[in-house]
Amino acid sequence: MTTASPIEFWFDFSSGYAYLAAQEIDALGARVDRPILWRPYMLGTAFKVTGMRGLSSTPVKGDYARYDWARAARRMGVPFAPPVEHPKVALPATRAFYWIESAHPGQEQRFAREVFRRYYSGKLDTSDPDAVAALAGGLGLDAAQLRAGLEAAAIKDQVRTTSESAVQRGIFGSPFFVVEGEPFWGWDRLPMLEEWIRTGGW
Amino acid sequence: MTTASPIEFWFDFSSGYAYLAAQEIDALGARVDRPILWRPYMLGTAFKVTGMRGLSSTPVKGDYARYDWARAARRMGVPFAPPVEHPKVALPATRAFYWIESAHPGQEQRFAREVFRRYYSGKLDTSDPDAVAALAGGLGLDAAQLRAGLEAAAIKDQVRTTSESAVQRGIFGSPFFVVEGEPFWGWDRLPMLEEWIRTGGW
C-alpha cells in the first residue's frame, strides 16, 4: 500500500473532458505510484463564483467542444454518445457516490467508472435517482438502501459542502487535479501533472 | 520549399497561452514539414459571439491562469512578465503585423515573435502605436512609414474583417490552430495536432 499523497481528481459527471480524464487517471496513478482520490462535485457551484457557463451552452465553443470530445474519444477507442439532453444535472449520481463511499468504502470508484461508462453510452440518466440506484444494484450494492440514502439530509449536505469547499480552494473546472497543493485544470494537463510528480516540480 | 498545407496559427498578442504556443509552433512545423501561417486577430471579436470573457477578468479562473502561464513559462525557460495592465488591447501591434506582411512580406513572423518577446518581458505596450512602430524600426523596418500605415483605412479594415471571418469559421480562442480544415483550440492541443498531421487523422 502506497503512502504517497493522493492525486485529487475533481470532476462533474456531466463533463466530457472529465470522462476523457477518467479513462487515463488510474493508469497515470499507477505509473507514479499515487492513489487517486475521486471527488465528484457540482460544477454549477463553481460557475456561480466564476460567472462561467457550461461548454455545451456557449455558442461556437460548444460546437467545438462536442467535436473535440468525440475526436479524443475516438482516438482512445471509447464511445462518446451522451444522452441528447447532455449535460444532465448529475446530482443524484454525485450523491450516490458519497453514499457508497461512506456505506461501502472502496466501491465508490467502481461505481463512478460505471456511471461514466453508461452515461457516455447513452444508457444512464444521471439526474434520475431511480436509474442511479438501479445501476448501483447492478454492481451488487443494495439499490433500495442507496435510493433511500439519496434523500438523507446528511448526503445532500455533504455534496453541497464538498462542492462549496472545493470552489473555496480554487477548484473551478472539470476535470481539475490537485497533488500536494499543486493545481492542474483540464484533461490536457495530465502530461504536465505526471511530469510534475516525476520531477518534483519546477 | 514545402508545398504542404500550412498550419494556421490564430492568436491574440495578449493571450498568455498564445505566447506559450509561439515558443513551440515553429519547431513543430519543422518536424512535420509544414509552414506556419501566423494570424493575429482580435479575440474580443470572438468574445462578442461566444459571450466569453478574457481569462484575466474571470474570478478564480483568472488567478489560476496567471499561475499556470508562469509555471509553463518557467518550464520552458522563458520569462513571463507582461505589463501590470495585462491584458493590453493589442490592436496597433495586430495592425502592424498585417502592414508588414503586405509591405515587407517575410518579415511579419519575425516582428510577431519580437512583439511576444518584448510584451511578455514587460518592455512593450502593444496598445501604443508609437511603441509598436519603434519596435519595427529596431528590426530595420521604416518606423515612420509603418506608423502612418497604422492609420490607413485599408489596414484597419483588414484587421476587422480578418477577425470577423475567423470567428465565422468557428475560430473563437487563442491560440487556435487549423490544418486542412481540422480545428485545434489551445496551447495544450499541440501534441494532438502533431499526432493528427503525422497519422493523417483518425
SSE topology:
Two copies of one chain form a homodimer.
Chain A: E1 7-11, H1 16-31, E2 36-40, H2 43-50, H3 61-76, H4 91-103, H5 108-119, H6 129-138, H7 143-149, H8 153-168, E3 176-179, E4 182-185, H9 190-199
Parallel strand pairs in A: 1-2
Antiparallel strand pairs in A: 1-3, 3-4
Q: Summed up, what is this model?
A:
The structure is a homodimer of 202-residue chains. By secondary structure, the first copy, chain A, is an alpha+beta fold.
Largest interface: A-B, 30 and 30 residues
Largest sheet of chain A: 4 strands, mixed
The separation of the N and C termini of chain A measures 28 Å
Oligomer class: homodimer
Structural class of chain A: alpha+beta
Count of DSSP E strands of chain A?
4
What gross morphology of chain A would you assign?
Answer: globular
Q: Biggest sheet of chain A, strands in spatial order?
A: 2-1-3-4
**Radius of gyration of chain A (Å):** 16 Å
Q: Uncertain runs of chain A with pLDDT below 50, 5 residues or more?
A: none
- Percentage of helical residues of chain A? 40-55%
The helix tally of chain A amounts to 9
Would you tell me the overall average pLDDT of chain A? 95
Report the order of strands and helices of chain A: EHEHHHHHHHEEH
Tell me the β content of chain A.
5-15%
